[in-house]
Each structure stands twice: as C-alpha cells, then as structure tokens.
Amino acid sequence: DTAGKIVKCKAAVAWEIGKPLTIEEIEVEVPKASEVRIKMVATGICRTDDHVLKGALKGIDFPVILGHEGAGIIESVGEGVTGLKPGDKVIPLCIPQCGKCSSCLNPNTNCCLKTHLSESQNVMPDKTSRFLCKGKAAYHFLWTSTFSEYTVVPVDAVAKIDDRVPMDKACLFGCGFPTGYGAVVNTAKVEPGSTCAVFGLGGIGLSAVIGCKSAGAAIIIAVDINSAKFDIAKVFGATECINPLDYSKPIQEVITEMTNGGVHYSFECIGNTDTMKAALECCHMGYGTSVIIGEAPSAAQISFDPILLFTGRTWKGSIFGGWKSKESVPRLVDEFMANKFNLDGLVSHTLPFDQINEGFELLRSGNSIRTILMF
Ligand code: COD
Ligand code: ZN
Ligand code: ZN
Questions:
Q1: Domains of the chain: which residue ranges?
Q2: CA-CA distance, 150 to 26, in Å (whole number)?
Q3: What residues contact residue 217 under an 8 Å CB cut-off, 6+ apart?
Q4: Residue 180: which H helix or E strand, with range?
Q5: pLDDT tens per residue across span 37-61
Q6: For the chain, which end, N or C, has fewer CB atoms within 10 Å of the first or last residue's CB respectively?
Q7: CA distance 39 to 1
Q8: 3-state secondary structure of 251
Q9: How far apart, in whole angstroms, are the C-alpha atoms of residue 257 and residue 58?
C-alpha cells in the first residue's frame, strides 16, 4: 500500500531542449489538498510534447516531465478531494475546468483561467513540485506529466471515466481526439451537406476528419505534405486528399477552385502561420469559417488582408475542441463505449514506456499517427 508514502518509480525526464529523454528513477510525493496521485496505465505522444523539446513553447522549466495524453488509475487522494477515490479510472486534463472562474461560468467557452495560457502549470497550484529526480525538483507540464509511472494532478484537472473502457484507447481522450473532433462539432458546428478542408493529418487533424464525417459534411478535403497519411484519412471519411507539394500554385487557390469559391469550414491542425493563412483564404466569401487548432510557436505573428474578414469570413480558434473538460471527457468516453466513433486507426504504434524516444522518432519521421506507450 503506497497511500501516504513517497512513491519511487520510473519517469522519462527532459533535461534540456534538443536532448532525448532519459528514463530515471524519481520520487513522487504524496498528493496535497485538492490533488490526486495517479498510477499511469497508458500515454500517447502528441506533437505539443515535441514542440517543448524543440524549444518552440516558451515558459517551460527544465528538468520537466512531459506528456499530456494519458489514462490511469487513482492511487491516492489528498485532503478535501470528493468524487474521486483510489481505483477510479481517470484521464488527466491538459485544459482544466475549475468551475469557478469567469470562463468556467460562461457557457460559451472552455478556456478556464487556470490553463497554462494564463498561469504557469510547471508546478502545482501551491507553487511547489511533487517530483524529485536526483535529489532536486523536476517540473510538471500542463499539470498532467503523463510520462511517469505516477503523477500528481490538481483535482480540477482530472476526469473520472467509465471503468470498462480499455486504457490504451482512453488516453486518446486526453488530447488528440477531443481537440480535433470538438473543433468541428463545438467550435465550427459543421452542418450536414457542408464542404470542409482539414489541414494536417496527424492525430488531431484525423480527429477533425472524423468530426466532419459524423457531422454529415458532403465534401471533406484532407491536406498534408505527407501523402502517406491519405489512406487513413480516407478511412475516416476524407473525400479528397491533396498534397500542396504536387501543385505549383498555392493550395488555397487549388481548394477554392475545387469547391466553386471556397469551403464552408476549414481547420488548421498543424500549428504553422502560413497554413493558418491558407486555411482562412480557402474559405468561401460571405459565410466561410476557419478554425485554428494548431498552436503556433511562441511569439509567432500573422499579417493578413482584412478584406477577407470584411467580406464575411469568420476566423476562430479552438482549444481542446471547446469541451469543458472535466464534465465533457467522461461523456465522450461514454459515447465511445456506445460505439459512436471508432478510433482504431488513430493508434498506429504501441510500445512499452521505456521506448519513449523511439515513439518520438516515429512522430518526427512522419511514420506514426499516435504512438501509445504502455506502462
Ligand atoms: N502543409 C500541410 N501539412 C503539413 C504541413 C504543411 N505546411 N506541415 C506539416 N504538415 C502535416 C504533417 O505532415 C503531419 O501529418 C501533420 O501536419 C501534423 O500532424 P502531427 O502528428 O505532427 O501533429 P498532431 O496532430 O499530434 O498535433 C498537431 C497540433 C499542431 C494541432 C498540436 O501539436 C497543437 O499545437 N496543439 C495545440 C492545441 C491544443 O489544443 N493544445 C492542447 C494540448 S496539445
Ligand atoms: Zn496534445
Ligand atoms: Zn475555470
């Protein structure tokens, strides 16, 4: 029984930008008030984790334990925690839902003011770390740090899910699937019969394709510079797949011609300011809407022709698919258990946790969709 005691376990530690992770023995402290300690079962690797290792996200302190797409089991709970008990299956939430801030009280947004966008999540809310590595504190990431056998998470950043769900699929509900799917059904609210374009066919873009299909879109144009992604995009419902490298003119012009003036909805799932512009430009005048899902490198800026918006296009952003996380993730998992969506094709590789660097290599080489690491 580990409750009330420091746990020694393995974690993948990022020591500095540009270096591989190393598997270390760490100590994980007892959860404090309003925190829970989770034994991880499975975790995905998302491009955002790699962005940190590339130095594209500022405000991260090292050494850090990354990972934000995990599923695990509550090992113990801190003082004052209600609604969660040891043995519960849970998903750590990279976008928390505190339930009290002005965003949480506003029905039109999920952008809780406790997210990393307004407050550092490199430490717990009391400004200390629960991780010790080689005698010194290691930092948390997005309050999730799923690249560890045990992690500590504030209670506002964890959702309890159905006991019956397989954990190697459950982890997809920590980031990739809700982010892409929700951008379509919540943020854009795609209607049946619409034309859509999805830029970038990673785990997030493919989840957007799943959303477009389930919303009844008539045309779903999938865009990627890696044509190897096209087969799986078609399985999920893409009706057309195009590679910008196959055309001499800009891809937004190609899409505008293909669709008689532009799409109803476009989704940027890459995090690149050029493709954000292209996604806006391929929207139809008067009623086209473009949704930014990818997070651009810190400090990146866009300049664009305001006539695009003046003439009736709408530009939106979507974080974690617009889902109020703590209440919505359990419902999405229930829908998955009721066979509302089939996520099989999203997981391309499954590896033991120790092989995490191979997982990152698969992501960087473009050969994987999601690699799931099993503890
Ligand atoms: N044109 C077309 N396709 C491109 C281009 C380009 N110029 N550049 C890259 N691509 C393709 C790649 O070939 C790849 O297939 C795809 O785009 C990107 O996929 P992945 O697998 O690298 O990335 P994902 O799907 O894991 O995530 C991408 C995001 C950028 C959306 C993600 O990293 C992100 O920024 N998320 C932040 C948003 C958010 O809600 N964050 C919460 C926690 S992540
Ligand atoms: Zn992610
Ligand atoms: Zn909040």
A1: 7-30+48-75+82-155+166-176+322-374, 178-321
A2: 9
A3: 190, 192, 193, 194, 195, 196, 237, 265
A4: helix 176-182
A5: 999 999 999 999 999 999 988 899 9
A6: N
A7: 13
A8: helix
A9: 39
> Which of 69, 199, 224 should be mutated for ligand 1, with most atoms under 8 A from CB?
224
Q: Is the CB of 202 under 6 A from ligand 1?
A: yes
Q: Which two tokens stand for residue 110?
A: 């999920």
Do 210 and 185 form a contact (C-beta atoms < 8 A)? no
SS3 207: helix
The four Cα atoms 111, 116, 120, 121 give a dihedral, to 10 degrees, of 110
pLDDT band at 297 (very low <50, low <70, confident <90, very high): confident
Q: Is the minimum distance from the CB of 324 to ligand 1 under 6 angstroms?
A: no
Share of the chain above pLDDT 70, in %: 100
Helix or strand holding residue 275 (H, E):
helix 273-281
Ligand number nearest CA of 229 is 1
State the CB neighbour count (10 A cutoff) for residue 128.
Answer: 11
Q: Determine the residue type at 29.
A: E
Write the ipTM. 0.95
Tell me the residue type at 86: P
pTM over 0.90: yes
CATH topology of domain 178-321: Rossmann fold (3.40.50)
Query: Class assignment of domain 7-30+48-75+82-155+166-176+322-374?
Result: alpha beta
Residues with CB under 5 A from ligand 2 (ion): 46, 48, 175
**Dihedrals phi, psi of 248, to nearest 5 degrees:** -90, -25
| Cα 319 to ligand 3 centroid, rounded to whole Å | 14
Strands 150-154 and 69-77: unpaired
Residue 201 Cβ < 6 Å to ligand 1: yes
**23: its two tokens:** 């598997």
Quick one: which atom of ligand 1 is closest to the CA of 318? 40
Q: Which two tokens stand for residue 203?
A: 């785990």
